[in-house]
């Protein structure tokens, strides 16, 4: 049974930082690319960042230079370090395995106050 469990969300002031974690089980973590997505109220879920099995990364333009995705294959965990947070970063953040089929976590709420 595949499980992706996000943690680390919360309430932070604009300009602050948070680090999200996503612990995976039931998949061959090290061979899969992993991604972060987010969904703000009333909006569609959107891509945030992805990291390949080899560690290559790609980011949405809206977070480039502020967010960093990383992974620890020994811990089956992918991280999203978020800095210089803005109110428009407020959303539920989801972890996704870029496998076929893909798997999603349950999401963690990030709220950035102005």
- How far from one another are the termini? 40 Å
Overall number of strands: 11
Shape, please? globular
SSE string, helices as H and strands as E:
EEEEEEEEEEE
Given helix and strand content, the structural type is mainly beta
Oligomeric status of the shown chains? Answer: single chain
Low-pLDDT segments, ≥5 res: none
Percentage beta strand? over 45%
Number of helices: 0
Radius of gyration: 13 Å
Integer average pLDDT? 97
Helix content estimate: under 10%
Largest sheet: 7 strands, mixed
Describe this structure in words.
The chain is an all-beta fold and 114 residues long. Helix content is 0%, strand content 52%. The strands form two sheets. Strands 2, 4, 5, 6, 9, 10 and 11 form a seven-stranded mixed sheet that branches. A four-stranded antiparallel sheet has the order 1-3-8-7, with no helix packed on it. A hairpin with a 5-residue loop joins strand 9 and strand 10. It starts with a strand and ends with a strand. The mean pLDDT is 97.
Notable characteristics:
114 residues, mainly beta, 4-stranded antiparallel beta sheet
Q: In a nutshell, what does this entry contain?
A:
This protein is 0% helix and 52% strand. By secondary structure, it is mainly β.
Secondary structure layout:
Layout: E1 3-7, E2 10-13, E3 18-25, E4 34-39, E5 46-51, E6 57-59, E7 67-72, E8 77-82, E9 91-97, E10 103-104, E11 108-113
Parallel strand pairs: 2-11
Antiparallel strand pairs: 1-3, 3-8, 4-5, 4-9, 5-6, 7-8, 9-10, 9-11
């Amino acid at each position: 049974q595949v499980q992706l469990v996000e943690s680390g969300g919360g309430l932070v002031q604009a300009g602050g930082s948070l680090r999200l974690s996503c612990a995976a089980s039931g998949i061959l973590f090290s061979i899969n690319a992993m991604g972060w997505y987010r969904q703000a109220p009333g909006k569609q879920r959107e891509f945030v960042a992805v990291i390949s099995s080899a560690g290559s990364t790609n980011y949405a333009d809206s977070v480039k230079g502020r967010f960093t995705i990383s992974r620890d294959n020994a811990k089956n965990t992918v991280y999203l370090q978020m800095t210089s947070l803005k109110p428009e970063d407020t959303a539920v953040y989801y972890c996704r395995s870029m496998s076929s089929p893909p798997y999603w976590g349950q999401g963690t709420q990030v709220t950035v106050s102005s």
